[in-house]
């Protein structure tokens, strides 16, 4: 008799405790989730090298543009401060690594492509999948259907899921085509703006001066053939670099940004083309 009464009491106590704890827990979780929902934060990642005058144009423009859309954002300018050929993908990976603890989505952004349609072309959190803002329909120059360069927005979660970008591309081009395949292999749906009232001549301003900044189209050795391979195991987790300086700077007009000076490490066995042949001896 006595035993049963005790057992019932203990049982009731357990039941009450379980009920209280689960109630407390669910209210916590709810609070946490609604917090996250209203608190998206974007890192604008700008691969950079010796383009100070374009930076003075890009940052004030983007700051006004994003502020007009109430997008909480930070600027991450990743300056390649070594003597290797430019590696846009590695710089984007670094921008992701160095900002992922404070943002939940990123936009990889060419410095010379300024969005002009702030009413329709938005930088909101890409919750359904990656958003290619510089769509081939609206880009002033590139119109091929698999083009995903220029401006691409993606959540940190999705970027991590495809292991970021392949860091094996030195010189100009193709790293974005590789990224297109990565997204596709991961089954991600790519979104693009559509039905804008602007067109390819006024959705973006292209401020690139080919005569001042010559593009590095050179291909050495197996570079061209290798560039067609995906190497999914290479990505942000294999990008080797030294962060030599990180500072918070301001443009002349007072826009704050993070400037990260980085030295990339080249694996000469994997990519002997990371330097131009003539400068190989000097830069090592
Ligand atoms: C930086 O760019 C300018 C042109 O804007 C050029 O004259 C200069 O040589 C470049 N400096 C380096 C270190 O590449
Ligand atoms: C774009 O606009 C056209 C014509 O106004 C319409 O038929 C079409 O459904 C729109 N596209 C989308 C994806 O909404
Ligand atoms: C784009 O739109 C502008 C303004 O409506 C127009 O003047 C221009 O001709 C259009 N350009 C193209 C390539 O359709
Ligand atoms: C990097 O991530 C890829 C894909 O998740 C994995 O295959 C590879 O082993 C990782 N490499 C390192 C060095 O962690
Ligand atoms: C880091 O960058 C800042 C801003 O450009 C500069 O003032 C400072 O001298 C740099 N520090 C080093 C160690 O290079």
From TrEMBL:
<keyword id="KW-0328">Glycosyltransferase</keyword>
<feature type="domain" description="Galactosyltransferase C-terminal">
    <location>
        <begin position="130"/>
        <end position="206"/>
    </location>
</feature>
<dbReference type="InterPro" id="IPR029044">
    <property type="entry name" value="Nucleotide-diphossugar_trans"/>
</dbReference>
<feature type="transmembrane region" description="Helical">
    <location>
        <begin position="7"/>
        <end position="25"/>
    </location>
</feature>
<keyword id="KW-0808">Transferase</keyword>
<dbReference type="GO" id="GO:0030166">
    <property type="term" value="P:proteoglycan biosynthetic process"/>
</dbReference>
<comment type="pathway">
    <text>Protein modification; protein glycosylation.</text>
</comment>
<dbReference type="GO" id="GO:0016020">
    <property type="term" value="C:membrane"/>
</dbReference>
<protein>
    <recommendedName>
        <fullName>Beta-1,4-galactosyltransferase 7</fullName>
    </recommendedName>
</protein>
<dbReference type="GO" id="GO:0005794">
    <property type="term" value="C:Golgi apparatus"/>
</dbReference>
<feature type="domain" description="Galactosyltransferase N-terminal">
    <location>
        <begin position="35"/>
        <end position="121"/>
    </location>
</feature>
<dbReference type="GO" id="GO:0046525">
    <property type="term" value="F:xylosylprotein 4-beta-galactosyltransferase activity"/>
</dbReference>
<dbReference type="InterPro" id="IPR027995">
    <property type="entry name" value="Galactosyl_T_N"/>
</dbReference>
<dbReference type="InterPro" id="IPR027791">
    <property type="entry name" value="Galactosyl_T_C"/>
</dbReference>
<keyword id="KW-1133">Transmembrane helix</keyword>
<dbReference type="Pfam" id="PF13733">
    <property type="entry name" value="Glyco_transf_7N"/>
</dbReference>
<keyword id="KW-0472">Membrane</keyword>
<dbReference type="Pfam" id="PF02709">
    <property type="entry name" value="Glyco_transf_7C"/>
</dbReference>
<keyword id="KW-0325">Glycoprotein</keyword>
<keyword id="KW-0735">Signal-anchor</keyword>
<dbReference type="GO" id="GO:0005975">
    <property type="term" value="P:carbohydrate metabolic process"/>
</dbReference>
<keyword id="KW-0812">Transmembrane</keyword>
<comment type="similarity">
    <text>Belongs to the glycosyltransferase 7 family.</text>
</comment>
<dbReference type="InterPro" id="IPR003859">
    <property type="entry name" value="Galactosyl_T"/>
</dbReference>
């Amino acid at each position: 008799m006595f035993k049963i009464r005790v057992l019932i009491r203990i049982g009731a106590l357990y039941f009450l405790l379980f009920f209280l704890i689960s109630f407390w827990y669910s209210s916590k979780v709810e609070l946490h989730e609604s917090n996250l929902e209203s608190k998206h934060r974007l890192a604008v990642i700008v691969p950079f090298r010796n383009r100070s005058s374009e930076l003075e144009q890009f940052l004030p423009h983007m700051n006004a543009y994003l502020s007009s859309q109430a997008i909480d954002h930070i600027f991450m300018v990743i300056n390649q401060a070594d003597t290797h050929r430019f590696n846009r993908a590695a710089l984007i990976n670094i921008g992701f690594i160095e900002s992922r603890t404070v943002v939940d989505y990123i936009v990889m952004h060419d410095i010379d492509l300024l969005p002009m349609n702030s009413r329709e072309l938005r930088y909101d959190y890409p919750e359904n999948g990656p958003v290619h803002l510089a769509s081939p329909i609206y880009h002033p120059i590139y119109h091929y259907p698999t083009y995903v360069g220029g401006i691409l927005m993606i959540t940190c979660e999705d970027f991590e899921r495809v292991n970021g970008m392949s860091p094996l591309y030195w010189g100009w081009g193709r790293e974005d085509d590789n990224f297109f395949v990565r997204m596709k292999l991961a089954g991600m749906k790519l979104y693009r703006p559509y039905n804008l009232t602007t067109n390819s001549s006024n959705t973006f301003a292209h401020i690139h001066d080919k005569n001042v900044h010559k593009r590095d189209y050179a291909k050495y050795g197996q570079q061209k053939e290798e560039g067609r391979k995906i190497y999914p195991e290479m990505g942000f987790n294999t990008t080797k670099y030294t962060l030599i300086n990180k500072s918070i700077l301001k443009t002349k007009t007072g826009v704050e940004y993070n400037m990260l000076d980085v030295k990339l490490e080249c694996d000469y066995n994997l990519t002997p083309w990371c330097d131009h042949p003539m400068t190989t001896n000097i830069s090592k």
